[in-house]
Amino acid sequence: MRHGKTEFNLAKRFQGGAVDSPLLPESIINAQKVGSYLADLKFAGAFASPQERAVVTAQNIVDQWEVAPKIKKIADLREMNFGKWDGDLVAAHQGEELFEQFLKYPSQFEGEKLGGENYYQFTHRVQAGLKSIFEEGFKAEENVLVAAHALVISFAVKSLLGKSFEEIRATGLVANTSVTVLETNDFNEFKLLDWNNTNFLI
Questions:
Q1: Can you say which residues are annotated as belonging to the binding site?
Q2: Are residues 108 and 102 in contact, defined by beta-carbon separation less than 8 angstroms?
Q3: Which residue from 57, 39, 97, 50 is spatially nearest to 77, judged by alpha carbons?
Q4: Which of 24, 90, 175, 180 has its CA 20 to 30 A from that of 169?
Q5: Which among 66, 79, 136, 167 is annotated as catalytic?
Q6: Binding site per annotation, positions for substrate
């Protein structure tokens, strides 16, 4: 699931792997709603990006469960590194060639020019993070919670399903505090059971 909305989200600032911003009060409430929504399921583990917005979201979810697993932080699940863009207003870069690549032509985006990542580097890193969770040896019927970020979830899930970077960008990113369910038994074949679900927030 994606973390809740932050002050940077509200201000429409880049919020990548190098910066953090506090969650809004409503985001804590929404994370608790997610916890209640998932409370009837059993989770064998809980994982999060090491960034505070993801960890706090995850903690507020598991706190709603009868048995709350300890949250393990996975460094490879950090949000995309935007380099010198991180923390800037998004509007400040609209119209720039790199921004157009970032948004519309992700396979061409040269994030390294900013001191950050391109989409190939980013997606490889995040997939490695998810594989490290899989390799902990959970049973086929067991669930694990992963709390992360918009680009992390959208690109990891859709790329594992075989979608191109352009397809992923064109269909949009997951919303704040949304739940996505991906199933695999071998980390080779994947099935998308739910995508960007926020029905529990109503």
A1: 2-9, 53
A2: no
A3: 50
A4: 24
A5: 79
A6: 2-9, 53
The one catalytic residue in 3, 26, 66, 166 is 3
pLDDT for the residue 174: 98
pTM: 0.96
Q: Is 124 a catalytic residue?
A: no
Report if residue 1 sits inside a domain: no
- Which pLDDT value is given to residue 177? 97
Active site residue 136: no
Q: What is the mean pLDDT of residues 90-119?
A: 97
Q: How many structural domains are present in the chain? A: 1
Say what the pLDDT of residue 202 is: 79
One-letter amino acid of 59: Q
Tell me the C-alpha distance between 18 and 111, whole Å: 14
- Residue 188, amino acid: N
